[in-house]
Amino acid sequence: MNRKDLNPDSSPRAAFGARLRSAREERGWTQEELGEQVGYSGTHLSSVETGRKLPTLRLVRALDRVFGKSGSADAFEREWREIRHGSLLEGFPEYVGYEGRAAEIRLYEVGVIPGLVQTPEYATVLAESALKRGAHTSDQAEERVALVAERQAALERHNPPLVFVLLDESCLRRPVGGRAVMDAQFARLIEFAEQSNTVLQLVPFEMGERRPFTLPVTVLTMADRSLMAYAESAQQGYLERESTSVLPLLTAYHQMQAEALSQAASVAMINQLRKGNP
């Protein structure tokens, strides 16, 4: 796409690119000169300015630093988040903001490996599958893969949160992307279990009707010890902050942890599946 073909009104991404180009040219910088200041190539900036690529979080924060807009009402990051959140399930962006600041994260997932422990390859297969079904555009698929990486990076901070992950056995039994993708994903789960601030347990099929949850659920404990829970329907995400509603979920989560496989037994099952044993 050349300069005269770029229409800022065609999409939020194009509007972002036009704004970036305008800000750069006001300073009299070439794309290469700006690229040196933000740590990206001029070619990459060209793709952002023409709307071919959505900028990364790292890039928009660097742009705010260079242009003196960090934390302001017209920050590039603020506009970027509005673009990103427009393609996500309602309620989820708000949840992600709390997730990145939580002191403790407890999640239970059914049928699919959750984003916080997905490999890039696993996340990409899921996004591409949704794209083929027409559930996402190519831009949305790309954004979802990027968001997985950003959520994981947000947890690799000073004083990281305690992360408890309960996986229904179906998460492991459901093949995604073929043998190589699943083997790498299993290796990632084992690596996750070895960290000092994590606990990984499998909820075996044998638990049957004693399993208190039939749908995924996440409970966050914030630094001030307040609680909130997040769950999704097909159309919307729900963030619950009322303790009277969240405490029963936390109790049920602890009960399921007590009956789930130990971390050692869970890792052993994952290793068996890696070897091709049922």
Can you characterise this structure?
By secondary structure, the chain is an alpha/beta fold. Helix content is 50%, strand content 12%. A six-stranded mixed beta sheet has the order 3-2-1-4-5-6, sandwiched between helices. The mean pLDDT is 88.
Give the count of helical stretches.
12
Order of helices and strands: HHHHHHEHHEHHEEEEHH
- Tell me, what is the CATH class of the largest domain? Alpha Beta
What's the overall average pLDDT, rounded?
Answer: 88
- Number of discrete domains: 2
Widest β-sheet, arrangement of strands: 3-2-1-4-5-6
Q: For this structure, what is the CATH homologous superfamily of the largest domain?
A: Endonuclease Chain A
Radius of gyration: 21 Å
Low-confidence stretches: none
**What fraction strand?**
5-15%
What coarse outline follows from CA principal-axis ratios?
globular
Helix percent band: 40-55%
Amino- and carboxy-terminal Cα gap: 51 Å
CATH structural architecture of the largest domain = 2-Layer Sandwich
List how many beta strands DSSP finds: 6
Overall SS class: alpha/beta
Write down the CATH topology of the largest domain: Endonuclease, Chain A
**Main beta sheet strand tally, sense and closure:** 6 strands, mixed
